[in-house]
Design brief:
13% strand; homohexamer; 2 domains; Initiation_fac_2B_a/b/d (chains A, B, C, D, E, F); seven-stranded mixed β-sheet; Four Helix Bundle (Hemerythrin (Met), subunit A); Ribose 1,5-bisphosphate isomerase (chains A, B, C, D, E, F); coiled coil (chains A, B, C, D, E, F); carbohydrate metabolism (chains A, B, C, D, E, F); isomerase (chains A, B, C, D, E, F); globular
């Protein structure tokens, strides 16, 4: 990594800065900006020969990549675009990168809609879904089902600690979907009234595991026990190619104040100094594939055990490392 | 039921009034007061013949019974005392009732301690328990284990909506037990670090089901899936003899404000009138016996499938109705 | 067995003859006749001493027993009555037998009603039950639920080969219960609409197994997989005390013509002689206790794993052999 | 759909008419006729330019497609042939279509034999299979196993309501396979004697579900519980590409007279008017992939969770809609 | 415990010494000797009053008890005999103890035979059993089945580390039972050929768990998965009443040389000093009740979940401590 | 097969001879030698035209293939190289074969290292693995984890009959990994202390089954029941393409003397002639995919249900037979 990096286009530098500063945020927005920046780099490249061009593109990708080392959508965007780089001459290479970025961005733009349409097809008129947390991918399935003229009801888990269920409930109410809000503890009791558990995903691993808001796995195990199918809505941006090489997804531990106020903590600890007392607040958990019936993406639905095939198709098999590595 | 009830002793009337007004409350306190009142009625009875005496006792029991028709411990106390009524003469009957009440109260006084000792025997030095809600019976097992010199740690679920986990955490911290507090959604993620799920019970049914704070059943299903044994601590007062005759336990629906503030609800509903939106807040749920490894009572531990045997032994088999019926 | 049997009362001989010739038939009717005959024998006995009286009663029981060696209700009736035989003198013994027979018959008379009331308590207003075969015990639960003012619907499996589901459907229609009739193959598809699987039993074994119309076990396994509770309605007459000593219940193989007409068989075999082709038509199958949620009897409901306790209570523990053995 | 469709070849019109009138019927026969018609259209096309040619082919495909909107094999045939259409000139395009149709038909012709050979390899000498319904694909596995010199026995479920088990039994008897016929209810009882459950499929969904004759799913759940592997024999024609986009397979409801004669129904309803009584007669049910061990196709065997990969390979990923859409 | 113990009979002292020195060994032999000693103490007692007599008996029991604090059969013998002590006068008390001891010893003498007969009834002609370790109770079931004229075959697991399977195989061969010996690792592969898993027990806990030779639980889990019933043969002597009060059964860790020779260990450790390397050799493991179909005792067969009822019946409910405590 | 085979290169004949005589042995070594031999044949070929060249290569492959008809790695090597044969002229064909062989050998050389790195990523610092048998692929995962600086402990099953666990233990000790050795029977008892079951594979079938040392499947079933993930480490050489066409993997039966010495056998049989006694010693067993969480190969990790996709990618789909067939 000690080589001189080629000069990078200002679009790349700008996008990198904005992603790093979180002015650009959200999985899809980041991915879009990264693809756009690569296209700009390609279009304006002064590279003299194919090798130089390729090096330039790799450098641009590296620059963007390092802004958010744990994001999933960002490297997926870079992988997709660079995998489309093909040709014997600089103009061919340029054209291929620009086209690959365009394709990526076009699909990204359509992805949630397409995903929603596919997911909606799994829902039947009169169905009740149970939701966990807030996922625009999952909600898109409901929205499209409504557009198909289906009546859908929802049982919404509040999703402690941050109660994103309230956001889900609000969105569903805007669409006039009947909503019953319950605490997470009540989920099993209501599963008998539910036709589908419908959740999103933070990311999806090559072994078919679904990483999603903490509580998903417990819900899925109960849904299986109650005979209720579990459907995960996740754009292919959420596929996590690092996991193809065995990497596990690091689970973020969030601020304990989401769980407990200082006053509540003081009351628990009484006069003691708080040693021996801890709050743990993991953001996500891991649902094994055997508790998921289908992963719905914008490219079709898949059993979780075969999502690795799609991952390899879209982002390569990670053999020989990342496309931006020297 | 249209017959003239015999005159009741002031102790009975007093206890009935205090139970009805909830001045006397808590499962064990109510049961104790009821047994005491029956003993007072027996001791001061002027009944001329055995039939009159028995009628008087039945009337006293009915009076007490009707103050809280859905309580479990109250009728169990009455059943126990009246089942001990035996003899051919008024003095014999009186003596038997007084003795039966004394025995009941003595056992009740010892019950939690005995239960705790039995439950503690299931715990090993170094074990970690996961708790749900707040149960003095369950905590008694930990307390006795500590007294036995065992190191015990706890992962405490906060137990939405009322967060009784905080009370549990506080008690455990007073005993210097290391506590990790987690939201209910995080339970499955921490089960791999847990040696026992330890919960109490609101009541226990003849088919071996455990009725307890909502969320218990979902936790138990996950514990089974993770290979963690589930232990329910419940005094025999919690056994629910009505269920021997097939009655199901009515699940109380609590105030929705425990789940959602008015402001939160307003935000969800936006400008809409709230129709189509509901909060459901069940207090309890039902855990089938196949997800419970042992029910620990003050009279020993039992597989949930055989608790009905203990129920019949203590409170009769409900054939021929309740002992206080005419 | 080479001793001279005492002379038997004509009631005993008459009942034995009628049971043998199947003029008396049906589990409850046989049991009632047997108890009545034993009472008659006791009342008219000329026995000079207690031993002679006891020998006479045992002989009467043996006589009745041998008329239908594989029935379950017949020996249960004899066991119950003889277990009640108690006393030091002939009059005491006589009185005890007569009383025991009276008690047995009184309870028998009430049993289905009591069972129905208990089973009905498990059903809730609006519930849908799925039935298999035709069982008056199971139907009694529905009848009592209707009397309790509950709305009950039914999905009725036709129950090949003999289609006793039609009889069930007819009875339910008489009570105005909405009925959907399906073939047995369609059961799993409709389980999601069902709140209880409700079946009777041919007999119940000490290990908690339920022997019932063939197809019950497959249904129960599917109901468990779909999260639907399974409820077996069976009077205690159906308990099979022989199984306490490990005996398995012989499954009757019925006429193949119930399954296949001669024409159908000819068509299958074509010109061949039929060797290599067989029809097997077992009447019953065995459902393990882990697929049954509750056995509802007239003496309360029990988890299947604890029914052996009731069996021992009612009919003894089979230690020292049958009460009628010399 | 308001554009002028190009003129279609008489072969296309003829095939369309015959398919619509069901003169051409059976999944394979329809598929073959459709491919043949597309080839004829291609061979005789007068199209002046590639676009016109392509439009003509799409129109022909649409014409054929609309004759049987719910068939699976018909659109699969069209997809396969049109996916093979490739080239820059009309002659190239023509050649590619003709070749693609020829390939499709050649494979179709061999498919059942190839499938049978693959399935036979899973069977061992001396094995007993249990069959449900009648499937020539499933039977082909047995036939090839017999040709391999293996002894195979069969337990044949009669498969109410239409008793296609009789057809299966007859075929097996012609091959001299020992057959035991049982009612569907008896299946679980005989699973312990069975080495493989062997069934066909009506269609197979992208989430790995198997849609087959009603009763299959209940059998599969029981087979799993009994430790018996479940093998589905299905030509790739049965793969249902619509399900890649989330569509569920509509389950046909068949005539209630298959289940119940008018006389039987009258007897059930007695004097009542039949309101409140219904017969439901679904043709198929859905078996989740976790209850299937292998799907045997003419292109190899697959775990059900990976069949979507084959589906995408053969028929495209349904991105951008059907190949015949304008 | 600081009181002067009454003088004990020489039989008691002798039995105590022989048990302590292991001259008397084996669960049944120890139990028999203890009961005999109590009877001798009772017969020769010079106690002046009932209280003195009772104190003497308790002292005798304590003396015997303390010789082998972890045995199960020894205290069970003492519990049984002392529970039979009843009466108002010394002669009555003496008579009751002598009779209780006689009854206990008579039943003990018959227990294995009775158990064998009951277990044999579960086996059918032609059945194959799989055995683990060596259990005379389990073998008694096979022996009685052979006496009933049934053909029984066996698959015998060698049962590392001590290979007691060889003893089982030898016994079965003496009875001419066809035996296939396999290593423990091969068990699952042969389960499909097995009709019953048949094992003994070291002890049985109140929660229905079976403590038996290490490897039993893994076998039972696999047998359940393969659909093979699991049958535990255990005389009631093996019931472990301490577990009623929650005590867990301490698992003996045996000599590592049973697992590994010194040479083998040296080869593993190479030149290293062996730190970081350990052999663990537990004698037993715990099988949860849900993996056991029936426990066969000399008093009948029981589902494991109801064995606690038998335990309470035979040995009391442990309320108020042990009968020998002051 | 009656045609005259082309003359084969001495490298091919030499390799064939050495493989047949087992001078070349071990899955990877054989595969390497075969690829090298094919490259030599290609380089020195005098073929006049492409057809001749191809025939020569097929003949060389057949020659090599027939030396060890049941090996897995050998035909995989041949398939890989021949699938890379591509071109219109002899030089092109030659070049492609040489390059394909080079690629295969290069990957083979790296495979275990790559696999180890991928597997290591699944392990976390502080994890304990349980091993069965001895697998260099599995050990490579541990080795790489150690290189990543992770602390790993191991519980090593001895793996009767051949106790390859000792070899595993020795290797782990060399790397200073803390090892606890247990008999196979003790595995379930220690699963609660284990984070991963880590095993190799003898071969892997298209239906996702893992064929590995006997005992693997029983361990996997128990690991699933205990909630412990199961990870199989297997280079793609172990994929068994024959299974794509339904072939099952023949399980080798090994010498009974591995299980039982002659003396032990004599002792079991006593004076009898040994008829009726058998030892069965299967080398492997089959673990269904539902008990495996991930298969780790050098090309990434896969759920077992999708390994068929990789198999098809690397070795073709077996349509049209093997590449060496005429």
């Amino acid at each position: 990594m000690s080589r001189t990096d080629p000069e990078l286009h200002e679009s790349v530098e700008g996008a990198a800065a904005d992603i790093a500063s979180m002015e650009i945020r959200g999985a899809a927005t980041i991915a879009d900006a990264a693809a756009e920046a690569l296209a700009a780099q390609a279009e304006d490249s002064d590279a003299d020969d194919p090798d130089e061009f390729r090096a330039e593109m790799r450098a641009a990708a590296r620059r963007l990549r390092e802004t958010r080392p744990t994001a999933v959508s960002l490297p997926n965007s870079l992988r997709y675009v660079l995998r489309g780089m093909d040709g014997e001459t600089v103009p061919e290479l340029r054209e291929s990168v620009v086209e690959s970025a365009r394709e990526f961005r076009r699909e990204l733009d359509q992805a949630q809609e397409n995903l929603g349409r596919i997911g909606a097809n799994r829902l039947r008129d009169g169905d009740t879904v149970m939701t966990h947390c807030h996922s625009t991918d999952a909600l898109s399935c409901v929205e499209k089902a409504l557009e198909q003229g289906k009546d859908i009801s929802a049982i919404v888990k509040e999703t402690r600690p941050r109660k994103q269920g309230h956001i889900t409930a609000r969105q569903l109410r805007e669409w006039d979907v009947p909503v019953t809000l319950v605490v997470d503890n009540a989920a099993r009791r209501y599963l008998d009234e539910v036709d589908h558990v419908l959740v999103g995903a933070d990311s999806i691993a090559a072994d078919g595991s679904v990483i999603n808001k903490v509580g998903t796995s417990g819900l899925a195990v109960n849904a299986r026990e109650r005979g209720v199918p579990i459907m995960v809505a996740a754009q292919t941006l959420k596929l996590h190619p690092d996991t193809m090489t065995g990497h596990t997804v690091e689970i973020e531990m969030r601020d304990e104040r989401e769980v407990l106020t200082e006053d509540e903590e003081a009351e628990i600890n009484g006069d003691a100094d708080g040693e021996g007392f801890a709050v743990e607040n993991p953001a996500f958990d891991v649902t094994p594939p055997r508790y998921v019936d289908a992963i719905v993406t914008e490219r079709g639905q898949f059993p979780p055990e075969s999502i690795v095939t799609l991952m390899r198709e879209l982002f390569g098999d990670q053999q020989g490392g990342e496309p931006w590595e020297e």
